[in-house]
């Protein structure tokens, strides 16, 4: 699928939870993003891939409301989205846990004071990410994979409609990464949440996503879209994933990303 069809077949007539229309983004005199339009349906999982410096993380920060100095517009559920919102969660490359807070306090950090409801939600989320019983642990007592599970629970605490992830599993080993990918797809399905993530891992992109958006650089813009129309749960050896991986790799090569 080419840039002319950046919304996969049928999506243009389906409900959209997120519409991103970026005309340009500059850092000083350097243009890092040129016209780039993306529409995402409720419950979709979409990945952004491309060479370093093509603007993937900047794109994500604009959607998160962390970058406001750009030309364009974003709508969330049909309403203008112009800044930070509890409807949009963000999980960074590193867990970014506060070392002096317990696991439970890190998860519930968005709420200044604990309540019965928030305490119950923390317990529920930690159980969901496989960390039941770790409520009073400190971050230094966790492995890298456990810390990122806490970050996922924290990202879900405000019950966002859209969850953004910036290379969330790049700092863990391959086995832990696969386990976290499987956890993420289960959570997305259970909560009916929409995911938009940046990754440099082609296998991760095709395994997780309904669509993979391939960006080219200087300035960053959408080059191609690869649809991965495969039901979940997925098998990593499925021939359709192998085919999708080859399509993404070819698109990256055409975008001079490799």
What does this protein structure show overall?
The chain has two domains: 3-87 and 161-254, 3-Layer(aba) Sandwich (Rossmann fold), CATH 3.40.50; 95-159, no CATH class. By secondary structure, it is α/β, with parallel strands linked by helices. It contains seven helices and eleven strands. It has helices at residues 56-64, 103-107, 116-128, 144-156, 174-191, 202-208, 239-254, and strands at residues 18-27, 30-33, 36-40, 45-50, 71-76, 79-80, 88-91, 162-166, 194-198, 211-216, 221-227. 31% of the residues lie in helices and 23% in strands. Mean pLDDT is 90; it is low at 1-10.
What keywords describe this structure?
6-stranded mixed beta sheet; 7 helices; Rossmann fold; single chain; 258 residues; 11 strands; 2 domains; disordered N terminus; alpha/beta; globular
**Fraction in helix:** 25-40%
**Total beta-strand segments:** 11
How many individual domains?
2
Class per helix and strand makeup: alpha/beta
Q: How far is the first residue's CA from the last residue's CA?
A: 20 Å
Strand fraction equals 15-25%
Uncertain segments: 1-10
Q: Tell me the CATH topology of the largest domain.
A: Rossmann fold
CATH class of the largest domain: Alpha Beta
Helix-strand layout with pairing:
Elements: E1 18-27, E2 30-33, E3 36-40, E4 45-50, H1 56-64, E5 71-76, E6 79-80, E7 88-91, H2 103-107, H3 116-128, H4 144-156, E8 162-166, H5 174-191, E9 194-198, H6 202-208, E10 211-216, E11 221-227, H7 239-254
Parallel strand pairs: 4-9, 4-10, 7-8, 8-9
Antiparallel strand pairs: 1-2, 1-3, 1-5, 5-6, 10-11
Helix pairs in contact: 3-4, 6-7
